[in-house]
Amino acid sequence: MTDFKSKIKTIEWIDTYSKMVDQTVIPYEYKFVNITGGQEMFDAIRNMIVRGAPAIGIAGAHGIILFAQEGAEKISDRNEFVKWLLEKAEYMKTSRPTAVNLMWAVDKQIDVIKNSKSDIKGIIEELKTNAVRLENEDIEINKKIGDYGAEVVPKGATILTHCNAGALATVGYGTALGVVRSAYAKDNTIQVFADETRPRQQGARITTFELAMDGIPVTLITDGMCSYFMKKGMIDMVVVGADRIAANGDTANKIGTYTVAIAAKYHNIPFYIAAPLSTIDISIKSGDEIPIEERSHEEVTHINGKPVCPLKGVNVINPGFDVTPHELITGIITEKGILRPDYVKSIREIFE
Q: Annotated catalytic residue: which of 243, 250, 281, 322?
């Protein structure tokens, strides 16, 4: 296990509230906010105060505790409390439809609620214990992903990544950037090219922020530049995160990932997904079944609140994610090792 120390912890349960980095203000500010209510957490997830599939999952788990604390103040009957809380849990899942880690983590809390023999106060304490366990496991899982991924990083490699799959997309350390961190711990000649990732610019705002904070060399490029640098031989491999992986290996990630994968295939550059097993949704056969979130048109038409195109007579379509077909994926780096094609077989076997 690598001993690289990332300086970031994205989200943490503190006694009666959830403390998280407000990612909407990075890189202008680096500040924490305290989320004290269930609906407030729903909105924090929806509005991307917290983002990144693993971090969203933990936020969802925290949200169930917050709803439980609120329910305990107004509901005294245990059975009525449980029924109400389970309804709130299903509601929490709707805050972001694509990231399956949200459903996974909320389901872990639902299991606690359904299996508990405790009174209302005891259920809340069990939910807290479970959420903290999930937090701690996330960091250890990411470090394992990083270590497995580092094994396939060539010495002195330049790694291209798209969007942010770093410490700020998880509880800490990161998935795709976890691979970078683990590789850099062994070879400090490693460097990163980061796509800006329009329209929310998570690569520009967040990935570069993380890497600069940790002292890892990073070069920012626009989304349309990856093929240019690939052709010039300046990219050795691609590592990205994932929001949901189907049973056949098709992978949903931030919009633009599919384009990068096509370019990498054409230039014979390895293209890896780095994600925990909780991101794999074996209930769906292919990426065609993954729901794709349609986000606000203003994300495309405005930057920092100012319009960058005519607001009348211009149609806008803004899917938050696309799906990269499994044929374009060299390997899926997980905490149990690197999955290789045939993905139907390798994914099935890792869950057996």
A: 243
